[in-house]
Write a structure and sequence with these properties.
By secondary structure, the protein is α+β, with helices and mostly antiparallel strands. It contains five helices and five strands, in the order βββααββααα. It has a three-stranded antiparallel beta sheet, with helices on one face. Strands 1-2 form a two-stranded antiparallel ribbon. The protein is globular, with a radius of gyration of 17 Å.
Amino acid sequence: MQTTISRLENGLTVASTHMPDAHSVAVGVWIKAGARDESEGLNGVAHFLEHMAFKGTRNRDAAHIAREVEDVGGFMNAHTSREETAYYINLLPEHLDLGVEILSDILTASTLPKHEIEELFLFFLNLTDAQYAYLLELLSLKKSLLHMQMQQR
């Protein structure tokens, strides 16, 4: 399996891997910004904004985003690490344009609804240290399982 790296005229770097036996496509956006890029007063903001991206855009509310992906059998997720923030979607090849459109929408047209900001902020504030550690462990496990699934395809 060989990955091809190319750069578009607009400066966007594209990595692609042709997998002839795969029956799905995966498309994602990896942003070279993560926890290490946050100032002390803004610790956690990259992860917070990652969650907010799914809360609505000028074109879709949160339920519409989830429903549109799930209605075509797709899966969408994101993660934030020290080095990056990534948003990705897996779906059938015939729905690739929809996947690219939804990713573009959440990354360029997010509305950051005030009530969603407050709700998410309160959720994180109310976690005990043990709950937060457990949540991080679950997210890490989910990320590892997803990575293994991607490698098997």
